[in-house]
Amino acid sequence: MPEVMVQEPRALSDRTFEKIRKLIYDKAGIDLRQGKQTLVSARLGKKLRESGLRDYDAYLDSVVADKTGESMIALIDALTTNYTSFLREPQHFQFLRDEILPALAKRRQIDIWCAAASTGEEPYSLAFTLLDVLGPVAITQARILATDISTRALATASQGIYAADRVTGMPPHWRTRYLSSGQGTYQGFYQVRSEIRRMIQFQRLNLIESFTHSGTFPLISCRNVMIYFDKTTQQNLVNRMAHYLDPGGYLFIGHAESLSGIEHPLRFTAPATYQRHTSGSGEGIKKH
């Protein structure tokens, strides 16, 4: 049988790279800085081969022509990293235990927004922490809105199924209390228990588009996504999120991120943790 030759995509030109930069910025707020051309070429080269195309411009045309938006989501997925883990940046979860939840324990309903949910490890870590602190009542008392731009990541998150190596770093009691062991073809996997999965509403949301939430939150976690945004997009996002915080509510950002140099109405309270004024007002401040 003759060997099938796979043709490699043509080189990514500077002009086409600029087209990709503009498209991804306009659609998702992602700032592909200069120097990322090799990375973009490698990651989109795989998409071209999957599509049977050799030309980046033809691939971009197909993305723009797809009215479902799924090709655009796949493009964004290819250019971003959905790395996450259970209890990632554990200082936030300790702050949630020690400072936030004791003040919320008597509320009839606790709403939390996890704004970059990825494949689900973060919202489930929030749910497990709520259960640890509040007990079984958290199943009906708490609701977590988990949003992400990636439908692929959200599909994984909503199933709540993880390989054993993904859960080895979590507290042992989490595995026994909150996860079920897989059997048969799912041997070596764990699934978040159904009653805990029901605490979380998974929803696709592009953070640079309008929010339609009906209420506010005592906690918004928006971690490790603003690293993809420029200062203007970061400022717009933080100020819009601040509008959806309860007076005295908290915003978590990633520990590798900073609100330095942008105007916002929040005060620094702990590393990567900011709080809205308890009055619900306050002049914008600039962090240096």
Protein described:
With 288 residues, this protein is of the alpha/beta class. The chain folds into two domains: 14-79, Chemotaxis Receptor Methyltransferase Cher, domain 1, CATH 1.10.155; 90-286, Vaccinia Virus protein VP39 (Rossmann fold), CATH 3.40.50.150. The protein is built from twelve helices and twelve strands. The strands form three sheets. Strands 6-2-1-7-8-11-10 form a seven-stranded mixed sheet. Helix 5 (90-104) packs across helix 6 (121-134). It is globular and about 60 Å long. It starts with 13 loop residues before the first helix and ends with a strand. The model is unreliable at 1-6 and 280-288 (pLDDT under 50).
| Through-space gap between termini | 66 Å
The CATH H-level superfamily of the largest domain is: Vaccinia Virus protein VP39
Q: Which term fits the overall shape?
A: globular
Bin the strand percentage. 15-25%
Largest sheet at a glance? Answer: 7 strands, mixed
What structural class is derived from the secondary structure elements?
alpha/beta
Order of helices and strands: HHHHHEHHEHEHHEEHEEHEEEEE
Number of strands: 12
Overview in brief:
With 288 residues, the chain is an alpha/beta fold.
Name its key features.
42% helix, 288 residues, three-stranded antiparallel sheet, seven-stranded mixed sheet, 12 strands, Chemotaxis Receptor Methyltransferase Cher, domain 1, Rossmann fold
